[in-house]
Design brief:
This protein has about 70 residues and is mostly loops. The protein is about 0% helix and about 0% strand. The chain has a domain at about 25-65.
Length: about 70
Amino acid sequence: KGHASFHHPLTVHGSHPNRTSEPRRSAVLNYFAEGTRSDTDEPLLNGIPTIARGELLNSRFFPLVFDPKWI
């Protein structure tokens, strides 16, 4: 049994409490436009090398998912 939720990041969202003895699992996918640049010198996520402010987010951790030229 499982559920999925797709929404804009500014949408208020939540879920009911986990009333089981099992941990809740989750996966988060963030999509953004090609050409997006880092706006911080701080680490973005644990385990991902820091991307300096102003640098493109285009490493193997931020792959291009869709390019209109592909169709």
